[in-house]
Amino acid sequence: MTKTQQVRLAKRPSGKIDADTWSLTTEELPAITAGQILVKIDYISLDPAMRGWLNDVRSYVPPVGIGEVMRSLDIATVVESTHPDFAVGDTVSGTFGVTEYAISDGRNVQRVDLGVAAGPTWLSTLGMPGMTAYFGLLEVGKLRAGDTVVVSAAAGAVGSVAGQIAKAKGATVIGIAGGEEKCRVLTEELGFDAAIDYRNEDVLRRLREVAPDGIDVYFDNVGGDILDAALANLRRGARVVICGAISAYNADKLPPGPSRYMSLLVFRASMTGFVVFDYADRYGEAISQMSEWLAGGRIKSMEHIVEGGIPRFAETLDMLFTGANTGKLVLAL
Ligand SMILES: NC(=O)c1ccc[n+]([C@@H]2O[C@H](COP(=O)([O-])OP(=O)(O)OC[C@H]3O[C@@H](n4cnc5c(N)ncnc54)[C@H](OP(=O)(O)O)[C@@H]3O)[C@@H](O)[C@H]2O)c1
Questions:
Q1: The Enoyl reductase (ER) domain covers which part of the protein (predicted)?
Q2: Which end of the chain is more exposed for a tag (fewer CB within 10 A), N or C?
Q3: How many Cα atoms are found within 13 Å in the side-chain-facing hemisphere of 229?
């Protein structure tokens, strides 16, 4: 019998997640049966999507149920196995949840190679956020060399990779992020051509300065006023990639729609949403390209690792909404 501590959904939040949202529980897991694995979680991925999974609405995955262990993507070590495809000691990725240990039948569990990259990078550039950046930019954004690309939440997990892929593909890249330090990281460490500090600068005016001929691809992670500023500065034939809208995730009533959407007509532009999981059968292609770029130093993987395990889940998740993370936010157990 293995004892495990978990975070469960106690109550659906309205607006901001608060202390009543979660309960910290401990339980004994049963012994594994034939064809199962017991994994010990090493790293938990903190994702803005977690906020959406708490709402009882129709979405691309069902909401987390009241009383259920909170859903999360994890990197884990196999500690017991009766499954033919997994051996004790394997490092794996899977949706095991916010828990110390989990039992799985191996479905949707992948072995990861720590020789290629460390565990947290498999939740970051070589994991779901990296896949989102890759397919969002190249397939949905139809990036072309020479394009002017603008990325919001650019110092975050998806944004930092999207901007670097765009650079690797020969685009001019402008990042939008909160604060001077994040903007410094974008231009001095990640090779962005320019950065706009949306907390302290007028985004619309600065976009006109740094992208005087307009934007070809706007990779939107935030929605709201920043989306409007980008819409106001499109170039003919622009592609707006709706990756996310974190500025509205904690809103308790629906925010107003984009007021500049007629720019899509004027500039013959498109605005397309996507869900990364639709590209799951092509992850191998993206992982092999990104591993090559990582090894060659063309892109850097940034992870923001918080130590402290399960009891620190709630405060760590909140960092995504205050902007306290730079790069992929990961909880280490
Ligand atoms: N479509 C898909 O399949 C898919 C897959 C993965 C992620 N996503 C979306 O991609 C976006 C980025 O996710 P991520 O995992 O890479 O998170 P992240 O960017 O690492 O973290 C979230 C960042 O959002 C910024 N932010 C928070 N509140 C904001 C606000 N009100 N206005 C503007 N910026 C705000 C903060 O940075 P600042 O300090 O710069 O404000 C924060 O660091 C999210 O919208 C997420 O839902 C979509």
A1: 15-331
A2: N
A3: 22
